[in-house]
Task: structure prediction
Amino acid sequence: MARYGRAFAERNKVVIAVVGIVALTLVFLATFNAARLPILGEGREYTAHFAEAGGLKEGTEVRVSGVKVGSVTGIELDGDTVVVTFTAKDVRLGEQTRASVKVKTLLGQKYLAVDPAGRGTLDEAIPVGRTTTPYDVTAAFSDLSDNIGQIDTDQLEASFTALSDAFRDTPESVRQTVDGLTDLSRTISTRDEELATLLESTSQVTQTFANRNDELASLISDGSLLLTELENRRATVQALLSSTASLGTQLQGLVADNEEQLRPALAELDQVAAILTANQANLDAALARLGPYYRVLTSASGQGRWVDSYLCGLFNTEDKPQLTNDVVRDCAPRSGGGA
Result:
C-alpha cells in the first residue's frame, strides 16, 4: 500500500465527507437543470416580448420552419408586455429573428413559431415590433356572448322607436333606414332568449372541443399516418390488382385453348351428376345400411387374432332349452358381437 499511497480508511474523513457532499450537490444541480445543459439540454435560452400571451404557456412547442426545436420555459408580465422565455437547439437565430404565436390545431392549440433572420447571433430579447399574436376566434365568441347578455334590448328598442318618430318628417329614404333599424331592434328583442341560449350552447360546444383537444389532435394525427401508409402501399395494391387482371386474362386464354378437351369432360361430368341425382334415394338407403354392417364387422374382427361369429336358427330352442342364447327373432346380435 505504500506504493500507491495511504489506504482509504487512513485518509482524513472530514475531507472525504466534504468532497462527497460537494459531488452530490453538483449531481443534484445537474439533474434539476438538465434541460439547460449544453449537450443534454434543450439548447440555448432566448427571450421575446409580446403584446399579449396569445395562448402560450410553459411547455408550448417552439418550431422553426415547422420543425420542433425547443419549448417555452417561462411567461412573465413586464408592464404592458409579456416576456416569453424559450429554448432552441441545433438552430442559429440571427439578429433580426422574428417570433409569432400561431395556431397548431383547429381547436386553438398554439405554438411559438420562430423565423431566423439577420446576421450574427441573437444576443438580445426579440422586441414587440418583431413579434405577433393570432386572433383568437373562441375568445371573440365568448366576448360576444357576454356583451350581448349585457345589452338592454327593451331600451334599445325604445331608442330606435324614438329615433324613428324624430325622423318621421324626413325624406323617404331616411325613414326607411330608421324603420329598418327599428324592426331589427324589435327582432333582436323578441329573440333575446333564443340568441342567449344559442350563444350559451356554442360556448359549451367550444369548451367541449377544447377539453378534447388532445384526443382530436391524436385522431387527426392517426388519420394522417393512415393516409401516409395507404400512400406508401399504393404501388403494392396497384401491382396486386394488375397481377389479378393478368391472371384472369391468362385463365381466360387457358380455357379458350383447352375448350375442345374440356367440353367432353364437362359433358360426362354432367351425366354422372344426373345419374347420382336420379339414384339419390338408393344412395341414402345404402349409406344407412352400411353403418350397422360395418359396426358388426368391426365388433367381430376387433377381438384379436380371431373372428367372432354366431349362427342364427341352427337349433330349435323350444326342444332344447339348454341351447337358448341371446339372439332375438330377427337374428340381430347384441351390440358388441354374437353369442
Q: What stands out?
A: The chain has nine helices and seven strands. The first strand starts at residue 44 and ends at 50. The longest helix spans residues 234-257. Strands lie at 44-50, 61-64, 67-78, 81-88, 98-103, 110-115, 131-132.
